[in-house]
Design brief:
The chain has about 425 residues and is α/β, with parallel strands linked by helices. It has 2 domains: about 270 residues, Rossmann fold, CATH 3.40.50; about 90 residues, formyl-coa transferase, domain 3. It is about 35% helix and about 15% strand. It has 18 helices and 11 strands. The longest helix has 22 residues. The protein is elongated. The structure holds coenzyme A (COA).
Length: about 425
């Protein structure tokens, strides 16, 4: 079966997490992703956070499915020749090097365009043009500079970073969308273009509702934030709102049975206005349906702590799953706090391919997250990540059409050997 991106070849110059997330998605959509790695070491994540000695880490294997790996020293003259041929044969170059690396390698945009005017060059950087454009950036730096950390956590506590990798994987997703749009535009213009996603921008895009609240602050307090009901004045910037809902419907995380021992025995509970009467019945407060202090949403806003304490008295009498079952019957929005253990064991996620078991020749079986985007005409099969340089000769021959003699020459040139001088990690 052809896939959505069958026939598209990606020159994958990505490493660590942000870029690999992007190219992995493109691979799942059917693109042929050729990952170029430094000889001898490869993507630094191959060796990071290892759970087993001397095998590619889960960090690497879970971000590089469905790709082929070629090792190439792109600072070696012969390596540059091979890279030039790869640029001719690929549709998209994706990179998330530090600022200026591609230029220093001798492949600025103008040169790439002269080699292949149809090529799309897609980049992730920490920041867009401006005072920080030369900075190297990792996940938590992006969360802090994109508005997520300042708005995450409790009002009286430190700013917090989230477990979801919104800076890395989030920006990878943004870039993938830009690439697909550029490929579509190319079908009409015949031209490639540059696609750029900055991690700060990606995080700010995901924190969009907080910039909304920043502007609302000029017109009065944010009444759905707990601190409004607690009588605590607002400052001039959006505060951290704990587990308050980011939408117009108040919500909180509430204890369920077993919370004393189980750190995840909690449920998110939303007091959505249209189902308020059902909530009153479920928790055993039918009088609140008509009481002037509780009946209408504006009257409830200053009393959210009291209201959620009462609801929690109810949720604490049952497990998060029992509460979910009862609440769902009445369309009361809620969500149990699922641990990674529970998600890994969830059979419905296995059935949809969102959680998949993958076999790897060196590390054996492991769990991964499959393609979260499901397409009826382009289903994704998750295949294992490549070993370092596993496909070097195959790509030199099949993709670039080099003869045995030329391949031998490339081997002799040192272009496939580890570079003598290696940059600091
Ligand atoms: N052959 C030869 N040299 C290679 C090579 C290859 N195949 N692939 C990479 N290199 C070299 C580069 O040319 C560069 O050399 P230079 O600094 O002499 O020009 C060197 O490796 C290091 O590249 P760099 O990307 O700067 O890696 P780093 O480990 O120093 O920094 C990041 C890592 C992630 C901080 C940086 O790449 C970055 O800021 N990326 C953009 C933002 C981003 O994606 N961050 C999130 C990562 S999850």
């Amino acid at each position: 079966m052809t896939k959505a991106l069958s026939g598209v070849r990606i020159l994958d110059f990505t490493h660590v997490q942000s870029g690999p997330t992007c190219t992995q998605l493109l691979a799942w959509f059917g693109a042929d992703v050729v990952k170029v790695e430094r000889p001898g070491m490869g993507d630094i994540t191959r060796g990071q956070l290892r759970d087993k000695p001397n095998v590619d880490s889960l960090y690497f294997t879970m971000l590089n499915h469905n790709k082929r790996s070629i090792t190439l020293d792109t600072k070696n003259p012969k390596g540059k020749e091979v890279l030039t041929e790869l640029i001719k044969k690929c549709d998209v170059l994706v990179e998330n090097f530090g600022p200026g690396v591609l230029d220093r390698m001798g492949f600025p945009w103008e040169k790439i365009q002269s080699i292949n005017p149809k090529m799309i060059v897609a980049s992730i950087k920490g920041f867009g043009p401006g005072p920080y454009e030369d900075c190297k950036v990792y996940e938590n730096v992006a969360q802090c500079t994109g508005g997520s950390a300042s708005t995450t956590g409790f009002r009286d506590g430190l700013p917090l970073v989230t477990g979801a990798q919104i800076g890395d994987s989030g920006t990878g997703l943004h870039l993938a969308l830009g690439i697909v749009a550029a490929l579509y535009q190319r079908t009409m213009t015949g031209r490639g273009q540059r696609v750029m996603a900055a991690m700060q921008d990606g995080v700010l895009n995901l924190a969009r509702v907080k910039l909304r609240d920043q502007q609302r602050l000029a017109h009065g307090p944010l009444t759905e934030y707990s601190q409004y009901g607690e009588g605590i004045p607002f400052g001039d910037a959006v505060p951290r709102a704990g587990n308050d809902s980011g939408g117009g419907q108040p919500g909180r995380i509430l204890k369920c049975k077993g919370w004393e021992k189980d750190p995840n025995a909690y449920i998110y509970f939303i007091t959505q206005a249209p189902v308020w009467e059902k909530i009153c019945d479920v928790i055993g407060e039918p009088g609140w349906k008509t009481h002037p202090d509780y009946a209408k949403p504006p009257a409830r806003l200053p009393r959210l702590n009291e209201i959620f304490s009462r609801i929690e008295q109810w949720t604490m009498t049952m497990t998060k799953f029992e509460a979910m079952e009862i609440l769902n019957k009445d369309d009361i929005p809620c969500g149990p706090i699922l641990s990674m253990k529970e998600l890994a064991e969830d059979q419905s996620l296995r059935a949809t391919g969102t959680v998949v078991e993958v076999d790897h020749p060196e590390r054996g079986k492991y769990l991964s997250v499959g393609n979260p985007i499901k397409m009826s005409d382009s289903p994704s099969e998750v295949t294992r990540s490549p070993l370092l340089g596993e496909h070097t000769d195959e790509i030199l021959r099949q993709v670039l059409g080099f003869s045995d003699h030329q391949v031998a020459e490339i081997h002799d040139s040192g272009a496939l050997d580890p570079p003598r001088k290696v940059a600091a990690e």
